[in-house]
User: What shape does this take?
Amino acid sequence: MPRVIAPSMLSADFGNLHRDCRMVNKSAAGWFHLDVMDGIFVPNISFGFPVCKAIAEVAEKPLDAHLMIVEPWRYIERFAALGVKYLSVHYEACNDRHLKECIRLIRENGMGVGVAINPETPAEVLIPYLRDIDYVVVMGVHPGYSGQKYIPETTEKVGVLAEMIAGAEADCFIQVDGGVSVSNIAELEQLGAGVFVAGSAAFSSDDPIAAIRALKEA
Assistant: This one.
């Protein structure tokens, strides 16, 4: 798939949220990324449905919601109602039964199905699910905070995961979330990643449109 940059709205200026949404609309970004945190699964709270709705009302590109929350199955239908196109839940937030239930509910609600794994979680845990999902989110940082340094082992994990997907003859892509920059994006893409979440790499720049274009073209 062509390289997709998905700016994380967690790093946007919430005092000028609509302005930043319009910036993403004009930029080379492909998706809007929504990091939803509950303060339980991760040690931080980000935003909930009112903010997601405010973004959805302005966004002209697909919404990609990443649920870093406990009991994600309780909220799947509500995210679908907001118009979210891609929805990922964490492997670590579910047991096998609940993960299968989440996959089924996301699919039934017409969204792309994603499963995210934390840095400490080996890629191999996803082998039983690869043929049932649309994408894997590989965390390049510990979930819960923006602006962290990239964990170098993520690069190898992307390569391992790509080999697993090919071996399973699965039709799913890889998203990297956290620590993506112009210095590592090309290698990650070469190893098999296709979608890249950019938080501080996009919004901390004096010229976010140029920063997003640089990630797209690096």
Summary: The longest helix spans residues 153-167. The beta strands are 4-7, 32-37, 63-68, 86-90, 112-117, 135-139, 173-177, 193-198. The radius of gyration is 16 Å. The chain is about 35% helix and 20% strand.
